Amino acid sequence: MMRVVIDADVVPRLAAHMRLRQDRARGQWTIQAPERSFVLDDIAHAIVSRCDGVASVAAIVADLCAAFPGAPPDAVERDVAALLQDLADKGVITA
User: Fold this and answer.
1) What CATH number belongs to 13-90?
2) In what order do the strands lie in the sheet with 36-40?
3) From CA 6, how far away is CA 3, in angstroms rounded?
């Protein structure tokens, strides 16, 4: 499998076998995959929920900066890229 490299132009989405689910009993969001699960904190959920296969990483960063106006844009960009690259390396995110 070819490695997905996350940059501003990439349009990320969950891989075909991954599902974003809310665990209402525990009050948390998870990504469900065959035989594994990833628990998301609020920031990770804010990022992953925008990975719809339509918005680019740059658009996701812009949307997050608008939603969280006090956050420094360069920090948002770094955090988004780091999380998405980690999830892409694990096969959770594709482009």
Assistant:
1) 1.10.10.1150
2) 19-23, 28-33, 36-40
3) 9
